Amino acid sequence: MKDFDRKISGAMIAIGFIVWILISREPDPVLTLAAILLHELGHVVGAALLKVPLGGFRLISCEARLALTGNLLSYGKEFFICAAGPAFNLLSFAVACRFGATLLGEGALSFFATVSAALAILNLLPIGDFDGGRILYCSLAPVTGPRVAAILCR
Q1: Rounded Cα distance, 111 and 104, in Å
Q2: What gap in Å lies between CA 84 and CA 86, rounded to an integer?
């Protein structure tokens, strides 16, 4: 039952994020998609830096999945790859702000900055299969063991 609850809460957050984008003054699906693709590119770059081969990419409803091939990853490598996606969103937010964007401001650049920041924050939440949930697990498992880390992450 707890796994089901975590998936529902994560889905509700994702749905809330999508609704927020749709009701904003100037929603731009192209800029939203660009921010999402930058997030996934961050994971790809993180895997490439660690020389972890990629096995594929797929979109499922409100989530994107990047498949990695080869042996199981160490906690440190998984942590790094998970953190790389939100890091790219935070970097794109910082670059947009450097060029004059403001959070929740007017215009396309501000919209892109807002979506990038929101994606980073959303993905860093310590929820199940979100990047933040996996980062939390990878932080706890070496200290507590995988079983206790899984219990604590619930």
Answers
A1: 7
A2: 6
Contact partners, residue 129, CB within 8 Å, separation at least 6: 10, 63
Please enumerate in sequence order all residues whose Cβ is within 8 A of that of 21, keeping only pairs 6 or more positions apart, or say none.
Answer: 27, 32, 115
Per-residue tokens: 43: 């994971």
Residue type, 51: K
Least confident piece of the model among 22-36, 119-133, 137-151: 22-36
DSSP readout, 37-83? Answer: HHHHHHHHHHHHHTTPPEEEEEEETTEEEEEE-SSPPPHHHHHHHHH
Rounded CA separation 51/116 (Å): 26
pTM: 0.79
**Calpha distance 131→133 (Å, rounded):** 5
Burial degree of 72 (CB within 10 A; 0-12, 13-18, 19+): exposed
Q: What is the DSSP letter of 24?
A: S
